[in-house]
Design brief:
The model has no long low-confidence stretch (mean pLDDT 97). The protein contains 10 helices and 15 strands. By secondary structure, it is of the alpha/beta class. The protein folds into 2 domains: 2-120 and 265-324, Medium-chain alcohol dehydrogenases, catalytic domain (Quinone Oxidoreductase, Chain A, domain 1); 124-261, Rossmann fold, CATH 3.40.50.720. The protein has helices spanning 41-47, 121-134, 151-162, 174-182, 196-203, 221-227, 249-255, 269-282, 284-288, 305-313; strands at 2-6, 15-19, 29-39, 64-72, 84-88, 97-101, 105-107, 142-145, 166-171, 187-190, 209-214, 228-236, 258-261, 296-301, 320-324. The chain binds NADP nicotinamide-adenine-dinucleotide phosphate.
């Protein structure tokens, strides 16, 4: 099969298309013939040699895809050849075929075409597992999501607002902020000119945000704690602003706040399987009703994978970038 491979760590130019052996389904796995794969920030790090795949995962880049089941391994009872699905992967998505544990497959939601479905697994599983399962966004809780125009941000804004929450977000350009508001954010804060702590506090009568979903890590740690409401939960999922920062425990104690950091890719198959099942139960109905839409900024053929990486690395894309096969 054709797959994207790298000869050495480096820039987008190291991504090439090669012939590699077809994957075979192990026990409990299926093979998907890939229709489309999505590009994630982690893929850029893996390309640069900074984010190796977890033990046992494919060396091929690619954390999510959509496609058609072409082979079924021993013990798989709920998927058959010909079924259409999208999948959360530990690797292997940038290829014509990928083997995946059956529990990490999700049906394509009604009304979503097969290519677009590749935009859903990472954002749906990351947002659902962090904001709703781990941080337990509840009742009248207020959410602040940083990077609102990204893949995760566009999905988090829609999902939380569809479930009745007030959502604040940060974004870097007028076009992105306008889009975030159209997706359901109450306010999209210009993080270059405004202080998100001040804006959120002002709009919540001084209370702050109950949950913060953060992609920036070190750079925002202190201000994220400032913006937390009493008993607030800060969930860090990215380190775009660095990995090391000083934590002011006194501020956290006073608020009875929690700081949580999670990574989906390295979680065991069992965890990912129950997250996928929960997403199908709770998130897919909102996708099928149109309340939450996959937001796709760019679709390119697999041959233009280097250009796709450059686009994600720049600041012009809104939502996800897909590679089609
Ligand atoms: N832990 C996990 O399991 C997990 C899973 C999936 C993703 N992630 C991480 O989550 C993050 C978001 O993923 P994604 O797929 O949405 O990436 P993405 O589509 O590239 O979006 C990232 C966003 O960050 C924004 N941004 C850059 N600097 C910012 C700043 N100073 N303040 C606020 N926003 C800023 C960018 O837009 P602007 O133009 O507005 O700056 C961009 O929209 C990434 O760091 C990714 O690695 C983690």
């Amino acid at each position: 099969m054709r797959a994207v491979t790298t000869t050495e760590p480096g820039g987008p130019e190291v991504l090439t298309i090669s012939d590699v052996p077809d994957p075979r389904p192990g026990p409990g796995e299926v093979v998907l013939d890939v229709a489309a794969a999505a590009v994630n920030r982690a893929d850029l790090l893996q390309r640069m040699g900074l984010y190796p795949p977890p033990p046992g995962a494919s060396e091929i880049i690619g954390l999510e895809c959509s496609g058609t089941v072409s082979a079924v391994g021993d013990g798989v009872t709920d998927w058959s050849v010909g079924d259409r699905a999208c999948a959360l992967l530990a690797g292997g998505g940038y290829a014509e075929k990928v083997a995946v544990p059956a529990g990490q497959l999700m049906p394509v939601p009604d009304g979503i075409d097969l290519v677009t479905a590749a935009a859903l697994p990472e954002v749906a599983c990351t947002v659902w597992s962090n904001v709703f399962m781990t941080a337990a966004l509840d009742d009248a809780d207020v959410l602040l999501v940083h990077g609102g125009a990204g893949g995760i941000g566009t999905f988090a804004i829609q999902l939380a607002s569809a479930r009745g929450h007030r959502v604040f977000t940060t974004a870097g350009s007028p076009e992105k902020r306008e889009r975030c508001v159209a997706l359901g954010a109450e306010v999209a804060i210009d993080y270059r000119e405004e202080d998100f702590v001040e804006v959120v506090r002002e709009r919540t009568d001084g209370v702050g945000a109950d949950v913060v979903l953060d992609n920036m890590g070190a750079k925002y740690l202190d201000r994220n704690i400032d913006v937390l409401a009493d008993s607030g939960r800060l969930v860090i999922i990215g380190m775009q602003g660095g990995a090391k920062a000083e934590l002011n425990i006194a501020k956290l104690l006073g608020k009875r706040g929690a700081v949580i950091a999670t990574a989906l890719r390295s979680r065991p198959v069992e965890d990912k399987s129950w997250i996928c099942a929960d997403v199908v139960e709770h998130v897919w109905p909102l996708v099928e009703s149109g309340a939450v839409e996959p937001i796709v900024g760019n679709v390119l053929p697999l041959e233009q994978v280097a250009e796709a990486h450059r686009l994600l690395d720049g600041d012009g894309n809104i939502g996800k970038i897909l590679l089609t096969l």
